[in-house]
């Protein structure tokens, strides 16, 4: 797979009643950056993250969403959605983000990133869009975008190629993980095959399997 980076987006400080952070601030409103942006294990230089208890960190350093999936939502809602509109750092083109395998490595610019886990929709996302039932609709759609780890720091920018440098053989995808956790419990055993899935997610799968 070879895709391309359409936009690199950085969060600005947004104060709103719908922000889930105790401070009332959110970094979900992300705007395209000009030029190359430095990325390391903490994420993108200049990206504001409001609620670090649930956003950011090594397993969620960078969030990618496909331009093609954004176009579906624009048609569904009858509204324009600009790059960064999903709170994503990377807007991609020609990449099957939902079909990305947990642990696969992407080379972008001089950086190497690794697919780690799907995004979980939250009330902040629904409030930002002003769509009260967005969490339910986003979950049913099941194209959540992918969080990425940064394995090798570097610089990335608009137009950079996105190439898969390595793909684990277990085949567990972003879409499968999301559906297992939210829609199709019968998929939960598959999550235990994905060694690069964050341990807290694998433990959640174990607990649900034990309870079931």
Supply database-style keywords.
13 strands; 25% helix; 28% strand; globular
Structural summary, described in words:
Strand 7, helix 1 (67-77) and strand 8 form a beta-alpha-beta unit. 25% of the residues lie in helices and 28% in strands. The termini are far apart. It is built from six helices and 13 strands. It has a seven-stranded mixed barrel with strand order 1-8-7-11-10-9-13. Strands 6-5-12 form a three-stranded antiparallel beta sheet, with no helix packed on it. 42% of the residues are buried. The mean pLDDT is 94. The longest helix is centred in the C-terminal third of the chain and has 13 residues, at 199-211. With 212 residues, it is an alpha+beta fold. It has a single domain (2-173), classed as M1 Pyruvate Kinase, Domain 3.
How much is the average pLDDT? 94
The sequence of SSEs as H and E is EEEEEEEHEEEHHEEEHHH
Shape designation: globular
- CATH architecture classification: Beta Barrel
Can you summarize the main beta sheet?
A: 7 strands, mixed, barrel
Strand order of the largest sheet: 1-8-7-11-10-9-13
Extract low-pLDDT stretches.
none
Whole-number count of domains: 1
**Strand composition percent:** 25-35%
And the CATH topology? M1 Pyruvate Kinase, Domain 3
Number of helices: 6
In total, how many beta strands?
A: 13
CATH fourth-tier homologous superfamily: PK beta-barrel domain-like
Cα-to-Cα separation, first versus last residue: 37 Å
